[in-house]
Design brief:
Length: about 550
């Protein structure tokens, strides 16, 4: 089930439901032990990203995936299990905050250099290659942070193939390579790094001092593609068509003749999970949609229409509006709101699921960022996976096994899988919506009246955003109903009504976000329509806070 009250991006959730798990590796081991996501015959041509604690590791993974190549991030102290699970064609050593010559600095595992596959070291990763293969790394006298230009050394090399001789890059390092390891040569230099890139004679090991994964290195994606295709001989087999058919095979194999239930949120992740599972096992899937009364206008009807009319899925629809509203009565604290909604959801879901009879599996829309986020670079620390799929204890109580077909996919891949499955663009390109719904966009107590006001305002905001073709470019756009009233004048009448705020942000993954520079004309139309069409509102303000320091939602 996914997203109880759900959504696909959440990280802020009631903690009671968090499942204790460890690192990526422990997660993979747990997967194997429980038979979740079992390895099937297909082994993807895989780039392994060994994470040394860089803030950019996830970005490297995204870039590799963008070249239709499967990759996984593993912590630097992981064993070599991945070599047996997938067809590993190359390894990328990430950057990291340490210095290789420091006592206790994390090293690249020995198996990386024994695996007989190409290796690319980025920043700290490059220094590790130098240090571990017999070169010398020392603190640089000049630190290099930010924009720099590197100059290719005249000779051809496959990593920089097709690039200009001068390459603008993003640097972020203090140490530098003083001596190359035996068999290596310099491939580029910058003003402050005599060795800004290096490679071995065989053309299999490379190190680059800059970050190819960030947007500030405009040709970085090209460099990573050169590594993936030129050096590692990737074939670009991780396509939506392939990963969808692989996921369907895995689901069939895993579920056999069993039965699956899946909670729908209306969000992209649960929609795609349900569509995938339905494609794999048809009527043995039952979906449950709990209308908590905190949804947007028309949302409950839309979900029914997509699943019943378009997909022909078995759907149990539960109208829980009254139950949720009474659970929220008098509640003001945002975390208590979340908790109340989460608990009510579990109760409703469990009642419904119990009525279905024998069920074997519970499907969830966990996606790769949830997995990565819940683990760190250091597997010695214990981490928590935050499930916003708050089914707290339900799988154990009902003796259900979890099935998470999107566990290794990024959001954009989930959307592509959805399109591949024939879902409409409206379904797959929806902006994320938080599980607790409009409750966390209503400051103070949530009442039916306030929900109706906010639904009316939200409708106008989305309507105008869509009318101006901005919907797909924004991570989220919505309205917040504040607890403040102000004086206004309408006709000859003095008014004393609510203030609403417009919030629109751009973001890659909701970890950070910037407030969107909506055109003034769009804002003007929104504001006019809101005060004219929603009598309970007489003032509209714009939220111009980025994240951090703000969060996307107000509560
Ligand atoms: P914040 O407000 O933390 O939001 O910047 C980041 C993303 O998560 C969504 N969000 C939630 N989703 N349950 C959810 O399912 C929640 O409690 C929750 N809180 C925030 C938010 O919409 C944004 O996409």
């Amino acid at each position: 089930m996914t997203e109880h009250p759900t959504d696909e991006t959440s990280r802020r959730v009631s903690t009671s439901d968090d499942i204790e798990v460890g690192t990526y590796l422990e997660i993979a081991q747990a997967d194997r032990a429980t038979g979740a996501n079992p390895p099937v015959d297909i082994r993807w041509k895989t780039i392994v990203i060994v994470d040394f604690g860089s803030q950019y590791s996830r970005l490297i993974a995204r870039r590799v995936r963008e070249s239709n190549t499967y990759c996984e991030i593993i912590p630097h102290d992981a064993g070599n299990e991945i070599l047996h699970e997938q067809d590993v064609i190359g390894v990328i050593l990430s950057g990291g905050p340490n210095s290789v010559y420091e006592e206790g600095a994390p090293m690249a595992p020995a198996w990386v250099f024994d695996a007989g596959v190409p290796v690319l070291g980025i920043c700290y990763g490059m220094q590790l290659i130098a240090h571990q293969l017999g070169g010398k790394v020392e603190p640089g006298t000049e630190h290099e942070y930010g924009h720099a230009v590197i100059h290719k050394d005249g000779r051809d090399n496959i990593l920089f193939e097709g690039l200009d001789n001068e390459i603008p890059v993003w640097m972020s390092h203090g140490d530098r390579i003083e001596e190359l390891p035996p068999g290596f040569r310099s491939l580029a230099y910058s003003e402050n790094s005599p060795i800004a890139a290096m490679g071995n004679e065989q053309g299999t090991y490379f190190g680059i001092q800059f970050h190819p994964e960030v947007a500030h290195t405009p040709q970085g994606a090209e460099i990573l593609r050169n590594f993936v295709f030129g050096v590692c001989e990737g074939t670009g087999d991780w396509t939506p068509e392939n990963f969808v058919s692989d996921a369907i095979d895995r689901i069939k194999q895993r579920v056999g003749g069993g039965k699956v239930i899946c909670a729908l949120s209306g969000g992209v992740d649960s929609t795609v999970v349900a569509a995938l599972i339905h494609r794999a096992i048809g009527d043995r899937l039952t979906c449950i949609f709990v209308d908590n009364g905190l949804m947007r206008r028309g949302e409950a009807d839309r979900v029914q229409n997509v699943f019943v009319s378009q997909l022909g899925v078995n759907l149990i629809f539960v109208d829980g509006t009254e139950r949720f509203l009474s659970a929220l009565k008098g509640v003001i604290d945002p975390e208590i709101k979340r908790k109340a909604i989460g608990e009510e959801f579990i109760k409703v879901f469990e009642e419904v699921a119990n009525d279905i009879g024998q069920v074997d599996y519970l499907a969830q829309g966990t996606v790769y960022p949830d997995v990565i986020e819940s683990a760190g670079a250091d597997s010695s620390a214990s981490h928590k996976i935050k499930t916003h799929h708050n089914v707290g204890g339900l799988p154990e109580r009902m003796n259900l096994k979890l099935i998470e077909p999107l566990r290794y996919m990024f959001k954009d891949e989930v959307r592509k899988a959805g399109a591949e499955l024939g879902l409409t663009p409206q379904s797959v390109n929806r902006q994320p919506f938080p599980g607790p719904g409009l409750a966390i966009r209503i400051m103070g107590e949530v009442t039916y009246e306030k929900l109706e006001i906010l639904r009316a305002v939200d409708w106008i905001v989305i309507d105008e955003v869509k009318a101006d073709g901005l919907y797909d470019r924004l991570w989220q756009s919505f309205a917040v109903l504040t607890n403040t009233r102000t004086v206004g004048v309408m006709g000859d009448q003095r008014t004393y009504q609510y203030v609403v705020a417009i919030r629109a942000v751009t973001s890659e993954d909701a970890m950070t976000a910037d407030w969107a520079r909506l055109p003034y004309d769009t804002l003007a139309r929104m504001s006019n329509r809101i005060v004219n069409e929603v009598p309970e509102v007489n003032r509209v303000v714009l939220d111009i806070t980025s994240k951090p320091p703000g969060t996307i939602e107000w509560e």
